[in-house]
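Marked as duplicate of an earlier ticket. Keeping the data here for the record.
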Amino acid sequence: MVAELIEEQSFRNKTHVFRDRLEAGDHLARRLEKYRDRKGLILAIPSGGIPIGLRVSQHLGLPFDLVISRKIPIPGNPEAGFGALSFEGSLFLNEPLVRELRLTQEEIRKLCMPVLEEIQHRNAVFRGGRSFPDLGGRDAIVVDDGLASGYTMMASINFVKKREPGRVVVAIPTAPESSIQLITAHVDEILCPNIRRGFFFAVADAYHEWHDLSEKEVMEFLKQPRSP
């Protein structure tokens, strides 16, 4: 399987193409219009994917939920990760980077522990610990505010595919070309308006206004009306 890729050629290799996450969500929603009358579900990756996913959900009239995965931070560089964990604890490693960092299995295990605790915390606070919805045969549209390495998305895709959805769609406003290549064999469709090449990539560079969302901000977004 190789994903159908939908991008905006006019956005290719450009920065600051969206005002903020809400505008990016509106942009994605318009490109996902074909899913309006289908049996689907919007699944946002916290935290940055939540405002985008909510806009898509509201526009398309599709139910909204979260798929909680987290990157594993590099020691001494918490903004960067060397892999990611899914909600169930499945581990996805950037093996070349792990070798470069010379991390042992025991070091990786210890670094994973606080990440799993944070995933459990987010599930309790953001989702109320409720059971994950049935995805059997449904379109699963996984949303985030952008990809960096792509491993958090890989963990999310793995979690979703275990639940036998009908079609897996990844919708992100921005990503490096390398991360698109990482996930393309694992999903049916990728919508990414702003694809960039280059040695340095930051999700924030796609936006005029961008900041890490606090837990309080996330909870305010989650109070918004949902589709049934």
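See parent ticket for discussion. The mean pLDDT is 93.
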